[in-house]
């Protein structure tokens, strides 16, 4: 995203938050300013069934959220319309699911990525990278807001593929 533009800052922030927190699209668009606890490096998310959870947010995403909130959002905001939602469209109202899909699609195309990438891809990458980095399944389950650990275990399959690749690459008899 062109971060010299108002919407470019917003779009960069959306991509950063998606990857940093592993949010569902519905969670991202419903995020309110009162859900941001940036000093504590946490955000509050309302997931499926309005279940509340608190998710860590990394320093890069925090930086972009702060830039967006000071330089971009005030210019998008419209009195009585913005309702304290973090991410706003160009009309100053809550960003829609389709609006986020269009943003992700645009930057995937602009970057030359040929694989299919959609908003949920960021959630998958978040979980996969945590597990590949050594995070325990229970912690990842909590961050993703999965009610059942078996839903989170899907990501261990990806991890096994990664482990097999590493084994083949580095084991003398691989």
Question: What would you say this structure looks like, in words?
Answer:
With 174 residues, this protein is mainly α. Helices cover 56% and strands 7% of the residues. The chain contains 8 helices and 3 strands. The chain has helices at 6-21, 25-30, 59-76, 97-111, 119-132, 137-144, 149-152, 154-170, and strands at 36-37, 42-46, 52-56. It has a 3-stranded antiparallel β-sheet with strand order 1-2-3. Helix 1 (6-21) packs antiparallel against helix 3, helix 1 crosses helix 5 and helix 5 (119-132) packs across helix 8 (154-170). The longest helix has 18 residues, at 59-76.
List keywords for this structure.
single chain; 174 residues; mainly alpha; 8 helices
Please specify the SSE layout and strand pairing:
Elements: H1 6-21, H2 25-30, E1 36-37, E2 42-46, E3 52-56, H3 59-76, H4 97-111, H5 119-132, H6 137-144, H7 149-152, H8 154-170
Antiparallel strand pairs: 1-2, 2-3
Radius of gyration: 18 Å
For the report, how would you describe the main beta sheet? 3 strands, antiparallel
Can you list the strand order of the major beta sheet?
A: 1-2-3
Extract low-pLDDT stretches.
Answer: none
Helix percentage: 55-70%
Give the count of helical stretches. Answer: 8
Shape verdict: globular
Q: Report the portion of residues in β strands.
A: 5-15%
Structural class: mainly alpha
Kindly, what is the distance between the CA atoms of the first and last residues, rounded to a whole number of angstroms? 41 Å
């Amino acid at each position: 995203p062109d971060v010299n533009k108002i919407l470019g800052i917003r779009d960069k922030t959306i991509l950063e938050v998606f990857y940093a927190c592993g949010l569902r699209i519905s969670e991202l668009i419903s995020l309110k300013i009162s859900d941001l606890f940036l000093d504590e490096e946490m955000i509050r998310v309302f997931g499926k069934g309005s279940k509340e959870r608190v998710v860590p947010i990394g320093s890069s995403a925090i930086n972009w959220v702060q830039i967006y909130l000071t330089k971009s959002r005030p210019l998008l905001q419209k009195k009585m319309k913005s309702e304290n939602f973090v991410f706003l469209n160009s009309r100053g109202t809550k960003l829609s699911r389709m609006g986020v899909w269009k943003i992700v699609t645009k930057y995937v195309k602009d970057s030359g990525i040929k694989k299919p990438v959609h908003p949920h891809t960021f959630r998958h990458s978040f979980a996969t990278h945590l597990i590949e980095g050594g995070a325990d399944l229970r912690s990842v389950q909590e961050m993703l807001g999965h009610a059942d650990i078996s839903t989170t275990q899907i990501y261990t399959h990806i991890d096994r593929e990664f482990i097999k690749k590493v084994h083949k690459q580095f084991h003398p008899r691989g």
